[in-house]
Amino acid sequence: MQVQASAAKNSGSPDPKVPSHVAVIMDGNGRWAQNRGLPRLAGHKVGVDCIQGMLEFFSAKGVRFVTLYAFSTENWNRPLNEVNGILEILFNALHQQTQALHEKNVRIMHIGKVDRLSQQLRTAVAQAQKLTSSNTGITLNVAFDYGGRDEILEAVRRVIRDGVPAGELTEDLFASYLFTAHSPDPDLIIRTGGEMRISNFLLWQSAYSEYYHTSTLWPDLDSAELERVLEDFGNRERRFGRVNPIDSGDSGATGATGA
After folding, report:
1. Through-space distance between the first and last CA atoms of the chain, rounded to whole angstroms
2. Would residue 132 count as lying in a domain?
3. Alpha-carbon dihedral of residues 98, 102, 107, 113, nearest 10 degrees?
4. 92 is catalytic
5. What CATH number does residue 164 fall under?
6. Taking the C-alpha atoms of 182, 86, 146 and 200 in order, what is their torsion angle to the nearest 10 degrees?
7. Is 115 part of the annotated catalytic residue set?
8. 43-101, pLDDT tens digit by residue?
9. Which of 40, 216, 235, 250 fits a 20 to 30 Å CA distance from 225?
10. Choosing from 27, 145, 185, 187, which is the catalytic residue?
11. Active-site residue, selected from the candidate residues 75, 135, 200, 220
């Protein structure tokens, strides 16, 4: 049964200056380690260890959903030892941190594929989701073996399998077939590490997300910078494609401007 996306979209933050859903492209773990003369995997481990503090910060600010881009569909093309190391780090994190997150009322959700994961890792993911499924605090979406194009294609396949008539397919109905059907679209997407790419992340869901790019490497993203990120978000005017009344005047602006 599909979750109706419209229901999830109504569960946002009561304060429009606070994003209900923050998504993070966690870039820079490997560079952080190399800058310190450490193996790249040391950076990935430190990156995972940063997650709990980040969740506590966002939860205290009223953020209800956090999505972390942990491992993309393209990351399988990295050196085998790095891929295996990342998989081991995820498995260990699930065993070592799930109980603590559960006690903090965090709900853990996996978004992405599971068929390429080992049975041991699939079991750990399923157990983490089951243990925290009734929690009512912040939701942590872990995007692992996730790709935006792959997600859209998989949603199309499921729509076809369900025999949905073309005339009945709406944006809300299609969104209910996505991995993120339980979450509202992200209000804010943060990319660390100085890169300026979307990197195949939440392509459908980010249509009107605000972006924040920082050169700070993920393990160095502290609460002081996160405060600046939220302050920057709170000062933005989100138009969602609408014309700003101040700009509409006699300039001949049309409804297609102001996006």
Report:
1. 35
2. yes
3. 20
4. no
5. 3.40.1180.10
6. 120
7. no
8. 999 999 999 999 999 999 999 999 999 999 999 999 999 999 999 999 999 999 999 99
9. 40
10. 27
11. 75
